[in-house]
Amino acid sequence: SKCRTGPLDLVFLIDSSRSVRPFEFETMRRFLVNIIRGLDIGPNATRVGVIQYSSQVQSVFPLGAFFRREDMERAIHAIVPLAQGTMTGLAIQYAVNVAFSVAEGARPSQAQVPRVAVIVTDGRPQDRVAEVAAQARNQGIEIYAVGVQRADVGSLRAMASPPLDEHVFLVESFNLIQQFGFHFQGRLCGEDLCADGTHGCQHLCVSTPGSFHCACNPGYRLGPNNKSCSVIDHCAEGTHGCEHLCIQSDGSYTCGCRKGYALHLDQRRCTVIDHCSFGNHSCQHECVSFPEGPRCRCRQGFDLQPDGRRCQPRDYCNGVDHGCEFQCVSSGSSYRCICPEGRQLQADGRSCDRCRAGHVDLVLVIDGSKSVRPQNFELVKRFVNQIVDFLDVSPEGTRVGLVQYSSRVRTEFPLGRYGTADEVKQAVLAVEYMEKGTMTGLALRHLVEHSFSEAQGARPRAQNVPRVGLVFTDGRSQDDISLWAARAKEEGIIMFAVGVGKAVEEELKEIASDPPEQHVSYSPDFSTMAHMLENLKVNICPEEGKGVTELRSPCDCESIVEFQGSALAALGSLEQKLTQLTARLEDLENQLANQN
Description:
Blueprint: E1 8-15, H1 22-37, E2 46-53, E3 57-61, H2 69-77, H3 88-99, E4 115-121, H4 130-138, E5 141-148, H5 153-159, H6 164-167, E6 168-171, H7 178-188, E7 204-208, E8 211-215, E9 220-222, E10 229-231, H8 234-237, E11 245-249, E12 252-256, E13 261-263, E14 270-272, E15 286-290, E16 293-297, E17 302-304, E18 311-313, H9 316-319, E19 327-331, E20 334-338, E21 344-345, E22 352-353, E23 361-367, H10 374-389, E24 399-405, E25 409-413, H11 421-429, H12 440-451, E26 467-473, H13 482-490, E27 493-500, H14 505-511, H15 516-519, E28 520-523, H16 532-540, H17 557-595
Parallel strand pairs: 1-2, 1-4, 4-5, 5-6, 23-24, 23-26, 26-27, 27-28
Antiparallel strand pairs: 2-3, 7-8, 9-10, 11-12, 13-14, 15-16, 17-18, 19-20, 21-22, 24-25
Helix pairs in contact: 1-2, 3-4, 10-11, 12-13
């Protein structure tokens, strides 16, 4: 007859170390099969799992694998012994962590189904068993320890559950292991105390070997007397997980949502009902869904009309005190100030002025090679200061930086160092002549990579402050300029090239921005550089002049004739003033003579 014990999770831990001889292992197979044949196997009755172990652990089949004896017997007959060491502690740990887990087929702990482990071994464990066995017992696993022949009694007692005289068995040989089988079946097949109806459980009675316990239906909790059951109020205890509302019912609960929300598929969270998806909102721009219904919204820069649906562009200029000196223009979600043609918007974004009060980041790159010579280098510094004179130097206006190069490059002062024209001019005069070679390409690279960085004082690109580079040279470069001349223009730097003496026209044009006639200046001698100032002033600050000043070589015939005409006119004016002065002196002499 079969044991009618009620639900039970039973796991056998079988020692298959090398000390278990083949015929002894066959006896152990028959032992397992005989016990299983006497159990009431089924998903709601007894579930059985088998583990074999030696130096490692192997699951023969877990608790949830088979619910027919035939399948279990077939798996048991197919076991191949591991034939290694005896790591009993490792096997117990595996049972705790894996074999009795819900994932392997064990029933949840709240179901209060008894968990029983039967350990069969023939030797002394090669690892520690006391601590891991105590851990198993603390987790509610009842352990039977069966030792055969050479088994260590102390280890068996350390593993088994109390009382030890009912859970520890030692037999002289594998042939006698059936004695334990009979005892074990007697323990499992004791009287079913739930069957006589005297248990007093309000809901459920769960039979266990030699005992029973009461349990409750789902949604109820066992009372202090361990017999009666009371409804679990999940809503009051806050364990429901509902996002909005918890609705208690008999032994259970449901979640609900506030108005304008719908219950999610998980039956706990709430999502806003998308009223806009119904397609009846008639909004000109955007529809926004709220719990109480749809509302229309306008894109940035527009205002919603009284009908709540149409949108009208917002006139920011009429709605704010814009402070524009010339004209305010509404633009998207804001406004901007503009200036009339020929005038430039100031850094404050409101006022307009001419170039002297405009804002530019200007870096001058001067040739300090030995071909320039010390006396001419002083003329170059004076020329730089003449350029500074027509700029409005200030942190908000024009910022000026200076770089000198020869065989190497040196930043004399960066853009952000000086805030007035006088400070810049004094710094220029203090620059010392470098001499050596002419590495113009190296200087252009320094200009692109360093001089216009924010760390050097350049303003962020977002402020749209023009970046101007002015390269001054007196000869052919000793390195290639093509790459970095092109890179400078790609970076948006407006490039001017000023050549003197033996400067190469092709290199000047390659350095300068287009059109070259506005960005290239040349003087045959250092002493005649002043005529280039007007051209630079007109093109760096084009609103200072009208049109484009055409530069001609002073050696051209037309230039010579023009110069002669200007010189003769100046001499004529001086001669006229000298005549007037002579007449005045004669008049004074006559007055003195008359007084004497």
